[in-house]
Amino acid sequence: MRIVCIGGGPAGLYFALLMKKLHPEHSIRVVERNRPYDTFGWGVVFSDATMVSMREWDPESAAEIEDAFNHWDDIEVLFKGTRQRTSGHGFVGIGRKKLLNILQKRCEALDVELIFETDVNSDLDYPDADLVIGSDGLNSKIRNHYPEIFQPDMITRPNRYIWLGTNKLFDAFTFDFRRTDHGWFQAHIYKFDDKTSTFIVETTEEAYLAHGLDKMDQDGSIAFCENLFSEVLEGASLMTNARHIRGSAWLNFNRLICGKWSHFNGNSHVVLMGDAAHTAHFAIGSGTKLAIDDAIELTRQFQIHGHEKDKIPAVLETYEEIRRVDVARIQNAARNAMEWFEVVGRRYADTLEPPQFMYSMLTRSQRISHENLRLRDKTWLEGYERWFAEKSGLAVGNDRCLPPMFTPYQLRDIKLVNRIVVSPMAMYSAENGVMNDFHIIHLGSRALGGAGLIFAEMTCVTPDARITPGCLGLWNEEQAAQWKRLVDFVHTSSAAKVGIQIGHAGRKGATKLAWEGIDQPLAEGEWPLISASAVPYLKNSQVPKAMDRADMARVKADFIRSTELAVETGADWLELHCAHGYLLSSFLSPLTNLRDDEYGGSHENRARYPLEIFHAIRAIWPADKPISIRLSCHDWTDGGNTPEDAAIFARMFKDAGADLIDCSSGQVSKQEKPVYGRLFQTPFSDKIRNEIGIPTIAVGAISEADHANSIIAAGRADLCAVARPHLADPAWSLHEAAKIGLTSIPWPKQYLSGKTQYETNLARAATAAPAK
Asked: Where do the NADH:flavin oxidoreductase/NADH oxidase N-terminal domain residues begin and end (predicted)?
């Protein structure tokens, strides 16, 4: 084949040398706009996994790269006058220029043709090529020649950064956070050769402008950074190698995702690699890793399918399919880390104490979890667990400290034995709203299973407030008596507390039981629906009546009556359901609230009725017991509420006296497009807790102790609500404690023999030799 790699970065060079090494008969050229053995940039970071692959595919270049590596295990954070360090993180760095020079030299040894100081306008400049590699970076001319084909989605991120260097050598990956009169700056620092360290300075656009950095030249910016970071620099100077850039050299990061990576232009197949196809923020240092991995995978597919020209389409299709998965995973982690640094000032630096700030930073990408930190640096993590336990009110001795999810938590006078909540989950098994033996056994078993707080499903305040005929209610004494039966059992038989979530289905009511057709309207026996506006949930749903003032007064009285009955039950916690498109949620979302009166339009107007309900129930609910608000923090639909809107509503509820926000999302519109994934709703909780300053519950795809410990330890939530895992395992909390080796958590005395056997079996499984 005739192959042309446009762009002599890591992706183009590495692919060229691998293909030439494996099939010397290929004609391969790499065309680069810079001069021979010249490049810009400071150090780049590699992963151990990438190096394993490089040793396998080309031991010669891998050995030379490893000889030039600088390896470090420690991360050090300077913050609020403290210097914290943790070990076991295993980074390797190399100068970008050194890396490219090694790859260039290896290409020359293999007879790859290197062409320098040549600008290429498009793939059409090489009509005789069978395969054109677009490895020409973020501003790829190859990609930009076919925007309708490659569908680039480029987003310019808000923070500013400047990429500098220093001759001071650092023995740890160092982060230095500095507060100024106009906001926070942070430095990302790491050594990449025996003389130089990378020194990236980052800040918000607001701080950048307020300090006049947009009006400074590079020398002025360097002087500013040297003064700001003088403590960590200890007299060393900063330097730039971006003199070719006019002005200040402060940049914005561009996040790139392409809808397609390959194209046939009529003569040649064209494929993108590296930054031309995707970018990953420097906060996790994976840009070079992704480029090398692209080159390896494309080569691997030629090895599998064959190196003939007619195999190119299949190779490119499989390459893209495989690489998309890993790239998405890395980009998600990079996005989490990037967003952490973008909001670090107002969300974390201003609010968190140094130990928790350090933990939050270490786990910012959500790739590093609580137990992973234990593997990396057990001493550091156990020290942090002791700090967290003491902050939670525990007396810490010499024994193993309780991990965060098992520490107590108190709101008003209600103290939970741990941070795990059984989510409200609809069972559709009530008759006339009355709880029966199924509910007692279902919820009672979860209380015996070790959770700190037990919620039943949304409990409806009136018959026409139900989602289905099988939903729980709390509008009469018979229902309250059954609720009291549950509360008394839980209080007598376990350490758990009981919460009642009251709500009104609104336009999502009068539907079939879930297993008969979720959200589908009843064929008979339906009741009239009400909502903020006359907007049906589904096309075939009943059109609700837009509530008038009489309806509002009636429903408010229903919530008051339900709260009075909840008081009679002796329940510990009350939650007001303002999420998932139900009645109060329909007032909050612009997708469902089309009103033009004082209850529609602005955030204040849309929140007016839910807040009226809240004030009414807060006046009745005992002052020593908390009320939380279940809030949809993202409608996942164009024109709907976003996390920014949710933060506004959270502040309103906080100001009104709410104790906690239960952070969920979605189910407001059937046009929603949620982005699912592990802990996918935790960022909403993180934002509201740390920006609004109100406790939160995190929900959504939390399925193991490691998840809950990571969330709570980092301060992303105060409690974790677990749903489906509790359906599969009533004793989820007890079992998760055993899985992480925590044997001090008490089980019901009736189950103690099962506890011993369960823990013994786990220990045996952990030490058993793997089957051959």
From this structure: 405-733
Q: List, in sequence order, the alpha helices (H) in 261-413.
A: 287-305, 312-342, 354-362, 370-376, 378-391
Question: Tokens 């080309």 map to which residue?
Answer: 58
Query: pLDDT-derived band of residue 245, with 50, 70 and 90 as boundaries?
Result: low
For the record, the structure tokens of 20 come out as 């030439």
Exactly one of 161, 582, 599, 609 is catalytic; which is it? Answer: 582
Q: What is the DSSP string of 556-581?
A: HHHHHHHHHHHHHHT-SEEEEEE-TT
- Give CATH 3.50.50.60 domain extents, the chain: 2-341
**Does residue 173 register a pLDDT over 80?**
yes
Q: The domain at 413-764 falls in which architecture?
A: Alpha-Beta Barrel (3.20)
Q: Which amino acid is at 24?
A: P
CB 335 within 8 A of CB 680: no
- Strands 75-79, 173-180: pairing kind: parallel
pLDDT at residue 244, rounded to an integer: 56
582 is catalytic: yes
**What integer pLDDT is reported at residue 68 of this predicted model?**
87
CA distance 409 to 280: 38
Alpha-carbon gap, residue 491 to 602, rounded angstroms: 43
Mean pLDDT, rounded, of the chain = 94
β-strand pairing of 719-722 with 420-422 = parallel
CA-closest candidate to residue 535, choices 600, 598, 473: 600
Most confident of 40-54, 191-205, 404-418: 404-418
- Beta carbons within 10 angstroms of residue 181's beta carbon: 7
**If residue 143 lies in a helix (H) or strand (E), which one and from where to where?**
helix 141-144
Contact 672, 686 (CB under 8 A): no
Q: In angstroms, rounded to a whole number, what is the distance separating the alpha carbons of residues 94 and 112?
A: 23
Of the CA atoms within 13 Å of residue 72, those in its CB half-sphere come to: 22
**Strand 251-258 relative to strand 152-166: parallel, antiparallel, unpaired?**
antiparallel
CATH topology classification for 2-341: FAD/NAD(P)-binding domain (3.50.50)
678, with CB counted inside 10 A (0-12, 13-18, 19+), is middle
Q: Where are the alpha helices (DSSP H) in 204-311?
A: 205-210, 218-228, 230-233, 287-305
Helix axis angle, 603-618 relative to 549-569, nearest 10°? 40
Distance CA 510, CA 157 (A): 45
In the chain, CATH 3.20.20.70 sits at: 413-764
In 117-151, where do the E strands start and end? Answer: 131-134
C-alpha–C-alpha distance, residues 173 and 73, integer Å: 8
Burial class of residue 102 in the structure, from the number of CB atoms within 10 Å of its CB (0-12 exposed, 13-18 middle, 19+ buried): buried
Residue 355, classed as helix, strand or coil, is helix
Greater model confidence, 79 or 678 = 79
| Bridge partners (DSSP) listed for residue 200 | 163, 188
